[in-house]
Design brief:
GO terms for molecular function: flavin adenine dinucleotide binding; monooxygenase activity. This protein has 491 residues and is of the alpha/beta class. It contains 15 helices and 18 strands. Helix 1 packs antiparallel against helix 3, helix 2 crosses helix 14 and helix 7 packs parallel to helix 11. The relative contact order is 0.13.
Length: 491
């Protein structure tokens, strides 16, 4: 579908940016840098490196600056303006989140999407806006990065994490074919939905020749699907968005193969959304955390109504419910699907089958992966904890995180420096709730992360801070403000 935006208000953004700078000045932000400088063998040590310059990484960076951790950098492997899913593999027309959510504003009204949109396009345009176009959301995130002057480096790929001398982390990164090593004290993985794994593709599909299928998060040449038959496997938002994109590109027909007997209709977690959930989920006993998330996963998140209508409005779109794939086989230049409802053929399959946590798929984490404690390593849910009636593989393989999103050791003492690596991406959900990837509570999660790292750095440097306290001798009084007088006589 074509994307258009209203005309811009001349000077509107400049006015808003002036206000943001004034708000920051009134709040005396960012706080001055306070962490003692550190070097190893003459090489500068960064306090924090954030991997991922999307929404989560930018919000984390904003809070690190707010707490005076100015000695940090954000690295993203994508070119500037292509961080995250919004203009790459996201194929929805608009976001599903309400336009009024404060999102990554970090508590400042002038940094909200609404403030940016009204400044750029005007109040009338805001009133007429229903949902946020994904391209518009990406433009807002680019502005957020710019107005806060966040230290993002693009085109940089993390390839290894190791421990260097003096306990700091040594990160091997590659940019433009050149390899370098960065030293840092804390590492934050703000790497999105597939942050600790990758796309999940059922083996029955993955066994086909690669020319005949793609995952919904892969680059797909939709123009090449014109006049061809397409099967989309799945019933979530990405399934609908990919099906609609194929139909709009001129696919001859699109068949939705859906295992469930009906489309999920109720968004459970959104239904109970509150600050109680945002702040309280992390404090739940383990069994209750599992019970909440198992209920949500078992119900599944429904696709947005507009996304389903975007598909069903095409006469050559077909929904096949209670239709799992038993096996696939090549039939000439077509793929033949054997299902409980019969046999069909297609020219191309899009697997909208989600993501998985699988550390073996992240070579950059190979050094620490064997030591990362997963929920299955220490927690066995009871029948009461599993409303679905089975142990969820997604929950079982979630990382078991500490209060600052830090990884914990599977075997105590095996990798003590693991606590300096923080998982601020979707797999943190079972430990912390939905505060590390979704728009509604991303600021709350990022502040929780920044507070923890701030505290950890101060505690670790306590001897230096105490020495500075003892050595501090700048007087506020000069001695000429008062004089000693004798006590008054009695009687």
């Amino acid at each position: 579908m074509t994307f258009s935006q209203p005309p811009e208000i001349p000077g509107g953004l400049a006015t808003l940016e002036s206000r943001v700078r004034q708000d920051l000045a009134w709040l005396d932000l960012p706080t001055r840098s306070w962490v003692p400088e550190r070097s190893v063998d003459g090489r500068h040590v960064l306090d924090v490196v954030v991997i991922g310059g999307g929404m989560a990484g930018l919000t984390a960076s904003g809070y690190l600056r707010r707490y005076g951790l100015l000695n940090h950098v954000v690295l993203d492997q994508a070119p500037a303006g292509q961080e995250g899913p919004w203009v790459t593999y996201a194929r929805m027309t608009t976001l599903r989140s309400p336009k009024t959510l404060s999102g990554p504003c970090m508590g400042l009204p002038g940094l909200t999407f609404r403030a940016w949109y009204e400044a750029r396009f005007g109040n009338v345009a805001w009133d007429g806006l229903d949902k946020i176009p994904r391209q518009t959301w990406m433009a807002y995130l680019e502005w957020l990065r710019s107005v806060l002057d966040l230290p993002v480096r693009n085109g940089v790929t993390l390839t290894n994490v190791a421990r260097a001398a003096d306990g700091v982390l040594a990160l091997t990164v590659v940019q433009g074919g050149i390899t370098e090593t960065l030293l840092c004290r804390h590492l934050v993985l703000a790497t999105g939905r597939d942050g600790l794994g990758g796309s999940y593709v059922p083996p029955v599909i993955a066994g086909l020749p690669r020319d005949y299928w793609r995952h919904s998060a892969d680059p797909i040449d939709f123009e090449a699907l014109k006049n061809r038959r397409v099967v989309v496997v799945g019933a979530g938002a990405s399934a609908m968005d990919n099906a609609a994109t194929a139909l709009e590109a001129g696919a001859a027909r699109v068949d939705m193969v859906i295992r469930r007997a009906t489309l999920p209709a109720i968004n459970k977690f959104t239904g109970i959304g509150s600050m109680g959930v945002v702040q309280g989920f992390v404090g739940l006993p383990d069994g209750w955390k599992w019970r909440f998330m198992d209920t949500v996963l078992d119900a599944q998140t429904p696709p947005p109504r507009p996304s389903v209508l975007r598909v069903s409005s095409h006469p050559n779109a077909f929904f096949h419910l209670s239709c799992s794939i038993d096996r696939l086989e090549m039939a000439g230049n077509a793929v033949r699907l054997h299902t409980p409802r019969g046999v069909m053929e297609t020219d191309f399959i899009i697997a909208a089958t989600g993501f998985c946590s699988d550390l073996s798929r992240r070579p950059e984490l190979a050094t620490i992966a064997p030591h990362i404690r997963l929920w299955k390593d220490r927690f066995t849910p009871t029948a009461q904890d599993m409303p679905s009636g089975h142990v969820s593989a997604e929950l079982a393989t979630s990382p078991d995180l500490g209060p600052g999103f830090e990884f914990l050791e599977k075997v105590p003492g095996s990798c003590p420096w693991l606590k300096y690596v923080h998982c601020f991406c979707f797999p943190a959900t079972l430990s912390h709730g939905k505060v590390s990837g979704d728009i509604p509570a991303i600021s709350d999660g990022a502040e929780r992360l920044a507070r923890h790292i701030t505290r950890a750095l101060f505690v670790e440097d306590r001897e230096t801070h105490y020495a500075n306290l003892v050595a501090f001798d700048t007087p506020e009084l000069r001695g000429d403000e008062w004089h000693d007088t004798p006590l008054p006589a009695i009687g």
